[in-house]
Design a protein that fits this description.
By secondary structure, this protein is an all-alpha fold. 73% of the residues lie in helices and 0% in strands. This is ATP synthase protein I.
Length: 154
């Protein structure tokens, strides 16, 4: 592990991504449930909630793994990120295998909510990173900054 006590510049960005991801998932669960109720009744509601939970798992594991690994050296950082990616892949396949066997889900609502979650998460990632004013080389002191870091924190 690195011995630096300064918070890496990626941590505030990932916290913001995590915060907006939670808001997105709650909104998707509510809106998806309402649409699901009118499309397929209770199976539509269950499908929207399950898809929103899967979206939260994906966004949460990504953001939390980066926050956790940010202070580690590059080899351990990559190991944590790769481990998180493998965990997400296994979890996604397990959830799909489980949901496919359940009678109380609606496949189109599940698919539609997951697609909306992916598009929303992509938009969150792009907007937060673009607004972060994060340099191409992170955690470097720029001339004239006088010890201030240009972190993104809302």
């Amino acid at each position: 592990m690195a011995t630096s006590t300064q918070e890496p510049s990626s941590v505030p960005i990932m916290r913001t991504v995590l915060r907006y991801s939670i808001i997105l998932v709650v909104a998707l669960a509510i809106i998806g449930s309402i649409i699901g109720w009118f499309v397929a009744g209770w199976p539509g509601v269950a499908s929207a909630v399950i898809a929103a939970a899967v979206a939260l798992m994906f966004a949460g594991v990504t953001a939390l793994s980066i926050i956790f690994a940010a202070r580690m050296d590059s080899g351990m950082f990559m190991a944590v990120i790769l481990g998180a990616w493998i965990l997400k892949l296994i979890a996604f396949l397990a959830v799909l295998a489980l949901v496919k066997q359940l009678d109380f889900t609606h496949p189109w609502m599940l698919w539609g909510t997951m697609v909306a979650a992916m598009i929303g998460q992509l938009a969150i990632d792009v907007v937060v990173v673009l607004r972060s004013r994060h340099g191409y080389v992170s955690d470097v002191e720029m001339p004239g900054s006088a010890g201030k870091s240009a972190e993104y924190d809302q």
